Amino acid sequence: MKDNFSKKQIIERIKFENPWWKTSKIDNFYSIMKKREYFKIFRPLVIEKSIKRAVVLMGPRRVGKTVLLYHMIQDLIESGVSPSNICYLSIETPIYTGIGLEQLFKYCREAIKKEDYKNFYVFFDEIQYLKNWEVHLKSLVDSYHSVKFIVSGSAAAALKLKSNESGAGRFTDFLLPPLTFHEYIELKGLSKLVKKITKGKKSNNIVYEVTEYETTDIDLFNKHFIDYINFGGYPEVIFSKEIQSEPGRYIRNDIIDKVLLRDLPILYGIQDIQELNSLFTSIAYNSGNEFSLDELSQNSGVAKNTIKKYITYLEAAFLLRIVYRVDFNSKKFKRANFFKIYLTNPSLRSALFSPILKSDSAFGNMVETAIYSQWQHVENFPLYYARWKNGEVDIVCLNDKQKPVWVVEIKWTNRFAENPKELTNIRKFCHENKILDAAVTSVDIKKVVDSDNIRIEFTPASLYCYTVGRNLVESKIENSSK
Predict the structure, then answer these.
(1) Runs of H (alpha helix) within 124-171
(2) Is 450's pLDDT higher than 90?
(3) pTM of the full predicted structure?
């Protein structure tokens, strides 16, 4: 294919993709977009040149990876890097088919008439379209010590697998997840709806400082929370009424189908694509429910070992998150026969089926899914759910010693805030595990009560979701600047 294009045509295309060589700025289409909070975490990895590593930006489709690259390019220019020392190439462009990364880099230098390659920043977007990209990239890192290479790709499962296999010591993986609810609020220009509060808190006789948030209009905040659940995972969708009116056409076809029908089958050699698609659809509809391999196998007619593999693949593709179960005493089970499965992005459900209403019987599960989705923004995931005969607690956080440190019950109702005595499960669990306080969400009630010597803090689910997402990302930002 590449032989059909002349060297001159390739170089002209490269010039087209790098307008800042002439204008010193990125295209206005990208510059007017607000930066994701993740830019503050991504930037230090890009500008770090003392460690000879390429940055591999990965994540689900349509979460803003290309926009993040363009924002990084503009930042480099504003920081004093010569625009002609910044190269960007989208590998999915047909004219580049079959051309190796090193040859493309040489073409870039020819396009700007520079033989020297010192202090360059080179961005390869949609890297998965080049076969054996990880071998090419490793060679570049080893050969060009003064060049920083940044690559991105949407086939997240494939990228992570190949990065781990070939990039040890050469690549730094960076995952860009779907939007947190906090990022949704920021991008929509709604930050005035939220007020930050820092206060002391006592838990299990330990006093510590905690950051919480209040809203000036809980009804409006909840309205946006519902929109976030239906459309909020993707930056482009939250600003487009056209896409929101037909999410299935945009999200299902462009995001889900490409992963299920192309990326995963190619990567793992899956023969029965319909079987995989059917399993994912069933799980997505029931996000937040408890599953077992036996149940899934009986309902689908697919062997348990095959289902186990499919779930692993879907989790590697950042479509699902598995949460395991502990018992009444917070002990893990030797065999994980039962587990909950959550979509990593609640808006995937509305894309597959239809936008969900707050009155829908499954809405509580989607609130739970939205809250759990905030936790994918940390690598270690020490969260479990507890279930025993006639009892359950939605979130249990275990410490390094496998002891519970805090618990949360996710509710989309004010019933328990108005009648705390009905919260028998969480009180029993707290007493059994010597936990002195617990969190329970509501629709719009915020208060603290003492129930049977357990301090229960009620918070609107939307505020809790916002708080978790914001605190986790800001913690990552703080750690990245150290």
Answers:
(1) 133-143, 156-166
(2) yes
(3) 0.91
